[in-house]
Amino acid sequence: MHELSIALSMIEGVLDEVKRQGDVHVEAVHLKLGVFSGVDRSALEFSYGVACEGTPLQGSRLVIEEIPILMHCPTCSGERTVPSAQQLCCPDCQTPAAEILRGQELEITALEVSV
User: Fold this and answer.
1) In this structure, are residues 67 and 39 in contact, taking their beta carbons and an 8 Å threshold?
2) What is the largest CA-CA distance in the chain?
């Protein structure tokens, strides 16, 4: 399960930032997670909780914003939200996605902290 290594990497990055901020207490970690990122949300949430045990992040929340897949359709000349990762085509004209614009994100966007 690669979600555990992702969670461990996230925790390491957050702890580095905590040290830079003066050892504040992290209440929540906000994450953008694209539907097409290849990361299973529930496995990541579980892994985050397990990986936080025994660290300064124990008890913190992982707040995930799911980002839908957005493609550029060369036929319609517009941006379209793809219905699922299994159907990478324009929902209007069924043209296969030539370019994915969003939906592959995996990034920490904010930390909620207390002093």
Assistant:
1) no
2) 53
- Predicted pLDDT at 24: 87
Query: What whole-number distance in Å separates Cα of residue 71 and Cα of residue 91?
Result: 10
Single-letter residue type at 108: I
Which domains are present in the chain? 2-114 (3.30.2320.80)
Classify residue 57 as exposed, middle or buried by CB count within 10 Å of its CB (0-12, 13-18, 19+).
Answer: buried
- In this predicted structure, the answer to whether residue 1 has a pLDDT above a threshold of 70 is no
Q: How far apart are CA 61 and CA 68, in angstroms?
A: 22
Task: Report pLDDT digits (tens) over 67-111.
Answer: 999 999 999 999 999 988 888 999 999 999 889 999 999 999 999
Residue pointed to by tokens 């579980």:
46
β-strands 106-114, 25-34: how paired?
antiparallel
